[in-house]
Amino acid sequence: MTSQAHVLLIGCGAMGGALLRGWNKTGYYSVTVIDPLAEKALRSLNEIDPSYQPNIIVFAVKPQVMAEVVPAYRCFLPLNPLFVSIAAGTSIQTIQQLLTGTPRIIRAMPNLPATVGEGMTGLVSSTILPDQQRQLMENLFCSVGKTIWIQEESLMDVVTAVSGSGPAYFFYLVECLTKSGMELGLSEEEATQLARQTLIGAAEILKQSTESAEEWRRKVTSPGGTTAAALQAFEDQEFLKIVWTAAKAAVVRAKELSQG
Ligand SMILES: NC(=O)c1ccc[n+]([C@@H]2O[C@H](COP(=O)([O-])OP(=O)(O)OC[C@H]3O[C@@H](n4cnc5c(N)ncnc54)[C@H](OP(=O)(O)O)[C@@H]3O)[C@@H](O)[C@H]2O)c1
Q: What pLDDT does residue 259 have?
């Protein structure tokens, strides 16, 4: 990027704040923040310099307040900025109706690890974006992790089910492994440390290598060994089906929430 992009961030809570920290680290963005309470933020749109010309406007407010917040930003429509929303379950069509006209809208679904720079963001656009703008969007979210473009907006519910809600599944697995270790005789402190660091270590291995999770699983599972015995028990209990059912439940819930 040759010149700084002017980003207007609306809402600087948990996720907006994480994005802001990522952007500030890159030095690529000149960011103006609007938030009623956040530090170094304008309190409302009324405080903005009338000559201000954002290239990108990011809505990072709760989905429940989108209908109330978005229409005020119609004033920027003549500048044709890229409007980005991270509000879960708020469709491009809804945002389009709130803004009116035919603005370029990008829906993004980051996840909690964005707060530590290891986020996974699914992106979908209302229009086919020229390469430069596509890159601009990727760079914006790459500052807090990795990005992936999704072809169909309806699949954003699946993104929500896999990466959006995903961190909690792994936390739950650590919880279950800790409890199992305790049931089998370890102290809580011992079991917690063992389970926690094991997830961190496994994640780091995936991070540092190009091999798939399946390849690593095969590599570390000696025939007839302890890991094989444990994995067989997972299979006997149809672990894949359990995970599939959980992801499906998240998709169904995401659809319900998006319908209000
Ligand atoms: N957190 C996540 O892991 C995650 C993941 C993916 C997507 N998201 C999406 O990200 C969005 C924000 O979530 P969050 O967890 O960051 O929520 P949050 O912590 O509540 O942040 C929202 C921020 O917006 C501010 N705000 C409220 N009304 C505003 C207005 N009119 N103008 C400007 N700012 C306003 C809030 O201020 P007050 O608190 O003073 O009202 C708050 O600081 C949601 O739509 C959510 O679906 C979050």
A: 80
